[in-house]
Amino acid sequence: MFANRYFPATRLRRMRRDDFSRRLMRENVLTTNDLIYPVFVLEGEGREQAVTSMPGVVRQSLDKLLFTAEDALQLGIPMLSIFPVIETGKDNSGKEAYNPDGLVPTVVRELKARFPELGIMTDLALDPYTIHGQDGLLDDSGYVLNDETTEVLVQQALCHAEAGADVLGPSDMMDGRIGAIRSALEEDGYIHTKILAYSAKYASAFYGPFRDAVGSAANLGKADKYTYQMDPANLDEAIQEVAMDLEEGADMVMIKPGMPYLDVIRRIKDTFKVPTYAYQVSGEYAMLKAAFQNGWLDEEKCMMESLLAFKRAGADGILTYFALDAARLLRR
Ligand code: PBG
């Protein structure tokens, strides 16, 4: 029957045949400890709004967010990342960003009082607070000013640290801001406040649904963020960004977006061997959700596969809008 039969020297399928051997040789695992849950918070009370372009994601006022936070904590999710929807106090100086009685500090204080073990991260950038929707202050030509913006970010960082934020996430891409924030924190005695630098943040069109969620899309209009966020064509530049942020005092670094940038995650993890995070951004979530809703992709399987891919690429953790769903699945 098998004339001149060739026998494969190695049968890789041998180890794949049984569940026990598949488990024995598995190289990466996703656990709940890998998840950071981004949440959108509204001013006021008793409010909850669906985000149309992100099915399953809501904006909530603090009273409702407390239930979400409790769920996350009970599921074992280590940290929430807070994104505010600012309705009062927007201007072009960004001063609402460091109002101690503003939305974010209020939410942080309440969350830390109720759930001290739950890590709370805040975003440092001015886009939720500016009328034009850019992450920083503009000059007359519309250029985002670097050093002037950094000054405001430092105020924002101190305000969030004072409120009790555990981790600050500068997502603005100004040069030198990590160093400026770190030395201000040290000077004021906030030596335990961690910095998760959005180091390699690309000027991506995958942020569209997020800008709807925080309400900066309409303000931003046709404007773009090319003068400060990275060109999606570049990889070496990401290395330089991360090197700079680490030298300036970042504890953790982030690559953003996630799935289209797995090569960047791997390169950064291999180069620096520091805590490295990926942000599976709003557009990635929207894309997957749309396919799930149409019945074109299997929701549970594709969600988990997409998250595991980050682990394989070298990420220590993932900011993902799937965090609650994934944690529930992992618990089963
Ligand atoms: C803004 C910020 C953005 C995101 C997080 N922080 C959007 C932007 O840079 O325009 C995007 C997150 C997402 O798309 O899920 N500083």
From TrEMBL:
Classification via SMART domains: ALAD
UniProt cross-references to Pfam families, sorted A to Z: ALAD (PF00490)
Catalytic activities: 2 5-aminolevulinate = porphobilinogen + 2 H2O + H(+)
Entry keywords, A to Z: Heme biosynthesis, Lyase, Porphyrin biosynthesis
UniProt pathway annotation: Porphyrin-containing compound metabolism; protoporphyrin-IX biosynthesis; coproporphyrinogen-III from 5-aminolevulinate: step 1/4
CDD domains reported in the protein's UniProt record: ALAD_PBGS_aspartate_rich
Keyword Lyase: yes
Listed InterPro entries: ALAD (IPR001731), ALAD_AS (IPR030656), Aldolase_TIM (IPR013785)
Enzyme Commission number: 4.2.1.24
SUPFAM superfamilies named among the record's database cross-references: Aldolase (SSF51569)
The UniProt record lists the keyword Transferase: no
Gene Ontology MF: a single term: porphobilinogen synthase activity
Top-level taxon of the source organism: Bacteria
Family: Belongs to the ALAD family.
Quaternary structure and interacting proteins, as annotated: Homooctamer.
Protein name: Delta-aminolevulinic acid dehydratase
Organism expressing this protein natively: Vogesella margarita
Phylogenetic placement of the source organism: Bacteria, Pseudomonadati, Pseudomonadota, Betaproteobacteria, Neisseriales
